[in-house]
Each structure stands twice: as C-alpha cells, then as structure tokens.
Amino acid sequence: MFDQDESGAMDPADDDPLPYADRQDAALRLAVALQRHAHTGALVLAIPRGAVPMGRVLADQLAAELDVVLVRKLRAPGQPELALGAVDEDGHRSMMPELSALADESWIGAEVALQMETLVRRRQTYRAGRPAPDPAGRTVIVLDDGMATGATMISALRWVRAHHPARLICAVPVASIDALAHVRGLADEIVCPRRVVHFFAVSQYYLRFAQVSDEEVIRELAAAARDRGEARGEAEPQASGRSFSKRSSP
Length: 250
Known about the structure:
Strand content: 15-25%
Structural class: alpha/beta
Order of helices and strands: EEHEHEEEEHEHEEHEEH
C-alpha cells in the first residue's frame, strides 16, 4: 500500500515500523521533517493530552508558538477506544460515515454532551485565562501522537481551517493508511514518517507511552507561554496571539 504526500511522491507504507523510544523521540523526528517552517512564526496546535509534551519539544525546535486545539472523540457503544467521530470546542461534529451504523442519534447526542463538558473544563483549565492564539494568516501545525481512525485529527483540522490559516499541516509520528486517506484534502501538507497498513493502537509504536495528566498539560502550556513571552522581550516579535472568538477564553 502507498500514501501520497503533498508533493505527489508515493511512499510505501511500513507494516512493521520500528517503535519510537517515547514521545520526545517522535517529536524530534517530526522537527527534522518540519525544519523549513522553523523561525517563521508558525503555530503548533497539539491535541490533548498526549500530544502536548510533544508539542513543547516541536515548538522549541521550530521556535514556534504552542497551544492546544480542543477536540474529543465520540466513543462507540461498548467500544470506548473506537471513535465514531469527534466534536470540537464549538460543538461541531465530524463523523466517520463507515461507523455510523454502530450508534443511533440518541447515543451520539448524549456522547456529544458528555464530551463538550470535558472540552469546556479543558478550555478553562489549560489556558488559565490566556487568550487563544489566532490561526489566521499563519502556518499552523496540528499535532497528535498517532492516528488510528483519524477522527480527532479530522475535527481539529476542520476547526483550524475555519479560522483561515495561511498553511495547514497535519503532523503525526505514525498513522494507519486509512486515517491518512481520511485526512488527505483537509491539510495542505501531511508529515507522517511511519505509515501502517495493519494498525491496532498508537501505543504499540512507542517503547514508552505513559499517560499524560491534565497537570502535565497545564505545566507545559504555561512554560511555553512564559518562554515565548521572554523571547519576545529579547528578540523581534513573532506573530502574536489574540482572542478571535468569544469562546477563545473562559
């Protein structure tokens, strides 16, 4: 099987890729592939929670701004690891059509309501009153630690695209070829070093894959904001974040 990148080149999928040591290792490898976007005022938007520590590493390597894009998967009945789709912080759903028969509208509606509660809480706690950065006119890199179905990435890319970035990049260390097919067309560029035919779980492609807590996300975002503020005081200003939606901050 093959996947096509934004340049039109055809890359073979690797059905038995070597695992990354950990998320930091994966982020450093993505940074190499994204070096042309270093020092350009790019914005890295990590999907919580697992991608946030990776986002800190990637943003440091690219001298980019770090924040989160708030989306949650919609779980299938009896199969909480299977995503029927996802919902963004504005309540917009992105459903996976091939899985629609697994749940009725009543289930999906209840699941949307439950996940929106989590998104509201995360918006309040992760940003601690800081305004969300505006993606408009910027290169935006949407980052996750892996894609099985692509549901949350689809939702994240659609949310960012609605805010008019100059260039939208999907970056993941590993993904199923099915997920990559789903996100193709939603991003201007896809960076995915390891593409897998028979994909089971993101964790199997890492030697160490510890759970990331809310507290760690808060620390990483606060540290990144502090570092960026110090850098702006010492060097030429980069593209600044500003509140662009009434839902950008609590």
